[in-house]
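Lab notes, practical 5.
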Amino acid sequence: MTNSTYPIGTPGTKWNNSDKAQWLARQNIKRSYQDEVVTLVDDLKSILNVEQYGELNYAAGVYPLYVLKTPHFNADKPTVLITGGVHGYETSGVHGALRFAKTSAIQHSEQFNIIVAPCISPWGYETINRWNPDAIDPNRSFYENSPAHESAAIMAFVKSLDIDLMAHIDLHETTDSDNSEFRPALAAREGTTNTNWNIPDGFYLVADTNKPEPEFQKVIIEDVAKVTHIAPSDENNQLIGVAQEQFGVINYAARDLGLCMGFTDAPYVTTTEVYPDSPTATDEECILAQVAVIDSALKFIINKQSK
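Output from the prediction step:
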């Protein structure tokens, strides 16, 4: 599919406000942020501190934004940020963050202060969408004066903490709908020609070109391989059109691209990419893969600091 066949816009011309309004009118609520996410956040109030860091006001409704924090923050401990649902349609990112918060966060809290933002884009979660209602991709909008309210809210919250982060792990998925819907929509919005990439069959990581930490990424891949299969590179030794740096790992210039994993100065960063459309993967497997990434990352940092 190219932008000439996408049902909105004029081929070769960027969308105007009318085109964006037409796109928005095609979106509809498919699941409930309140029922599927907020209730799980509320259930964790007995073990974690829950804090509302913002609120999104859209025509579809008002969306409160929450973080979960391990109790007894201590300035002598390193602090870790876990983000999920930057792309709301990437379900295991949201539920992997919540599952980690429920099952593992407390046991890691002796060594770390942990902040979990499980669903940065709740409207995207409800509409199973990559963009927000303004047809903006939050994961290309992590920069000063961001036009995406979702990105601006979590950045402002982290800045308000005035602490240095040791690690930031951003939980994502790569789905077949990236090629069937989201890349064609992007090309139409930008007035360009769409070229789809091969969707990798399996899990992979995206590291930051400016601080790739290959040993860190390698250990995570090895641990996730115990839960789900790692994506092999294509015939060009690439994943999603990008050269593979090592098995299951590619690099992106995170800050230049406005990616969530690039907005802090944390030395250890990675973005997960789970593949939920694999015929061999289950929803539970995808969630457990996300949890395995976080557990592995924290274990690596502890081992590194003890040497």
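Observations recorded by the TA: The chain is about 35% helix and 20% strand. The first helix runs from residue 17 to 25.
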